[in-house]
Amino acid sequence: MVDDEPDVVEVIELTFSLQWPGSEVMAAADGESALKLFLTGAPDVVVLDVGLPGMTGFEVCRRLRAISDVPILMLTVKGEEMDRLKGLELGADDYIVKPFSPLELVARTRAVLRRSQAAPLAACSRIIIDEELTVDLDNREVILRGQSVKLTPTECRILSQLVANAGRVVTQKMLLARVWGWESEDDMLMLKVHIARLRQKLGDDAQNPRYIFTERGLGYRFARPASVPPYFLSSA
Residue 95: which domain range? Predict the structure, then answer.
């Protein structure tokens, strides 16, 4: 928990101890302390406030993403959509808007951790998309022109859904529900930012797509791979 308001941290620590027995909250009040605590404490989830003294939460997020794919849930101020957008672009998995309910924070922290630990959607590990791109869902990576590119757990689950329904449209609401949960099914901003990050890692161009096609007003469609076992394809 990275937040410079002691009262907020105290309430969060109490709520976690009551609602999630066995969990441990490690707290840091600034970015430098947070990075040191991360390296020594090896947390399973990071809850990160944007408005920190000195190093901003955005910079902490950027530095964490450079060394780890740990789930990151960012705290942003109500109405500051640009903060949410920037946090997601830097690699945050989810966000919650201040002021928030401590119980909601516990629930969303559980959810982001559960998604990060979820197994791939199918037993198929490596899927050949075409001569330039191979997807390895077990190891959360893509091989693009012979080079390995790591995916975050969230990006991997989005890609799993798209590939499992290759050639068919997956609606925006369905992607949000299956990747983040039904409570996030109206958060189109979060989905669009993650799709953009995924496209970048796949070497795809939104204006002239090769893999992820936008079906305007509906959702997204993934190009049918050159080689994928038939049991991987979903009827969803």
Answer: 6-117
